[in-house]
Specification:
The chain has a single domain, classed as Aminopeptidase (3-Layer(aba) Sandwich). The chain has 11 helices and 11 strands. It comes from Neolentinus lepideus HHB14362 ss-1. It holds the Pfam family Peptidase_M28.
Length: about 375
């Protein structure tokens, strides 16, 4: 999650632009085109972009994505409707198989990398580990015939840490709709060269959707519509990875019916009610209402409406491309984890960092996939 206007801006350490930082490929003088809310795009150096984040400002880095808005126009004329949940027997069958064991093991490994910063060696290594884990889970839990419907691919980026896309191909020959469930795999400290375990932001979302994927394929889920799981690179750099993927899908005229982002799913602030934060600004209102119904129907905790602002996570890239997008997080925005973007975003902060809370979001993802993807009879 990028810095929000509600966070306190901090003073960055004095940086020597000519220093070399082992394991990090970053030219602080490189010029980037940045789009802030309500302003014309403007060029700034990479260092100025980092300082802009530290000031609590949200933005798209549109250096390579300047035409994303124009690709959206034909799509914005379409209007999708989302029915009330009606697949309770199939959803509940899968919900019973969800566990915290996998997320605990996977997140312990995912946070062991010094940083998952998208321009770092360890950012690339963490992406490769995640790819191997997805492949391992697929080989272990998917039947031989279901594996024939599953594709696992890297979406290449110039900075080295690639986005990951897993597709469970739909059976329908008449309905080319795609359902997307996503998280971002990268992490970032306030200053990119410092450690960033990124346990909550967004390690929690990454392993949350991975557990949902495991449970679905273990149940031999055969969707009518194609269901995809995405792990984006470089969200912290200005939604770079998700913009690239969304642009590619829009240029290919792919029919994305709905996408939902999970960014931070673990934190329950001491003294507050456990709940799901449903983001209501810069999202598709009909899909957001559908998500509320999923929470009411399938989760053990309530939702709360909250806002997070312009370009606050990867769903914004899909909205910009004209697709129906939505976003859920761990709580109301004001109660979310304040340790993010630091070395203190760790799994060992108890009891506020909660794998049981993450499990509620895995339930949400399973419900989203089955209700919108449908299950082949």
């Amino acid at each position: 999650m990028p810095f929000s206007g509600r966070e306190t801006a901090v003073q960055l350490p004095l940086i020597d632009n000519d220093l070399n930082y082992p394991g990090i490929e970053l030219d602080l003088n490189e010029r980037r085109l940045v789009q802030l809310h309500g302003q014309d795009p403007r060029w700034m150096t990479e260092l100025e972009k980092i300082e802009t984040k530290a000031q609590g400002l949200r933005f798209f880095d549109i250096t390579e994505m300047q035409d994303l808005d124009s690709l959206a126009r034909p799509r914005q004329l379409r209007k999708s409707s989302f029915p009330s949940p009606n697949s309770t027997e199939q959803v509940n069958f899968v919900l019973e198989t969800l566990s915290t064991a996998g997320p605990k093991e996977n997140l312990a490994k995912f946070t062991s990398f010094r940083t998952r910063y998208y321009r770092s060696d360890t950012g690339r290594q963490s992406q490769q580990w995640l790819l191997s884990k997805i492949s391992e889970i697929t080989a272990k839990y998917a039947s031989k015939s279901l594996r024939e419907q599953i594709s696992i691919s890297e979406f290449s980026h110039s900075w080295g840490q690639n986005s990951l896309i897993v597709s469970i191909n739909g059976s329908s020959v008449d309905d080319d709709s795609i359902i997307i469930i996503s998280a971002h795999q990268d992490s970032a400290n306030m200053w990119p060269f410092l450690p960033a375990p990124g346990a909550d932001d967004d390690g929690s979302g990454s392993v949350t959707i991975l557990e949902s994927y495991r449970a679905l394929i273990a149940a031999d889920f055969r969707p009518v519509r194609t269901v995809e799981f995405h792990w984006y690179s470089a969200e912290e750099g200005g939604l770079l990875g998700s913009q690239a993927v969304a642009k590619y899908y829009a240029a290919q005229s792919r029919n994305v019916l709905a996408m939902t982002q999970l960014d931070m799913t673990a934190w329950v602030k001491r003294g507050t009610r456990e709940e799901v934060g449903i983001i209501t600004d810069f999202v598709d209102p009909d899909l957001t209402d559908f998500n509320k119904k999923l929470v009411d129907t399938y989760l053990d905790i309530p939702y709360v409406e909250t806002e997070c602002g312009y370009a606050c996570s990867d769903h914004a890239s899909w909205a910009k491309a004209g697709y129906a997008s939505s976003y859920s997080q761990e709580s109301a925005f004001e109660n979310s984890n304040k340790n993010i973007h630091s070395g203190n975003d760790r799994i060992d902060i108890s009891p506020e960092f909660s794998f049981d809370h993450m499990l509620q979001f895995s339930k949400f993802v399973v419900a989203f996939a089955i209700e919108l993807g449908k299950w082949e009879s």
